Prior knowledge:
This protein has helices at about 10-20, 60-65, 80-90, 105-115, 125-140, 165-180, 180-185, 235-250, 260-265, and strands at about 1-5, 25-35, 60, 70-75, 95, 120, 150-155, 185, 200-210, 215-220, 225-235, 255-260. The chain is an alpha/beta fold.
Amino acid sequence: MSRIAVAGVSGRMGQMLIEAILSDDRAELSGATEHPGHEWVGKSLADLVAGVAEDIPVLADPAKSFIGSDAVLDFTTPAASVANAIAAAEHKIVHVIGTTGFSDDDLAKISECSGQTVIVRAGNMSLGINLLQSITKTVASALGAEFDIEIVETHHRHKVDAPSGTALMLGEAAATGRGVSLRDASDRGRDGHTGQRVRGKIGFAAIRGGDVVGEHDVIFAGKGERIVLRHIATDRRIYALGALAAALWGISQQNGEYSMTDVLGI
């Protein structure tokens, strides 16, 4: 049985990650973290979360919380995920990262840690999205630049980053299929008199409102026809189940940085 810790246990995803671990007979919950100053720090998770039987303390120090674990599931913040990556590398445990909104500097630090342990990082942990990513790359490769690419994503009102990590994943897939750099091809800001659309650009639009879990459309718009690839998530548990699958897979892998497409063998 694999021992799995959860970072950011009080959040919505943290709760779902705990539920996924408790529901899987291949895994057991082994550690829990929250940010310094959080009201849960220093308390037993058994007193805070239904279904947790063991006396697992909620700690602010990931290096202490990860002792004895085989992996950690992390859907927190960029700063917290970087600190967790350092702690996971120190203990040589698998680090599954579902956090989004990283800077280039953050990603460089995480990548450096992958020399000491297994890191699985994805902007989205669901099977469907990762299949969509693969299909997007294929379609972008098959169609010429006369087809404009637009990525439209919708999320709940509480999401703090835009475009979403998933939208950027899809944008990277489209750019790779086209043989271009997303950094050069991305078009994220349209307001006022912008002029006509630039050929070859990959556009992004972000919608925020209500309690939408996540919707992503990749639109290939040509003359007289459009191809629309769509994924709709209705339950956040798909991300928790995907993250747990990634952790169980990662335990038997060599050190390095992986994606969900590696986990799924796509």
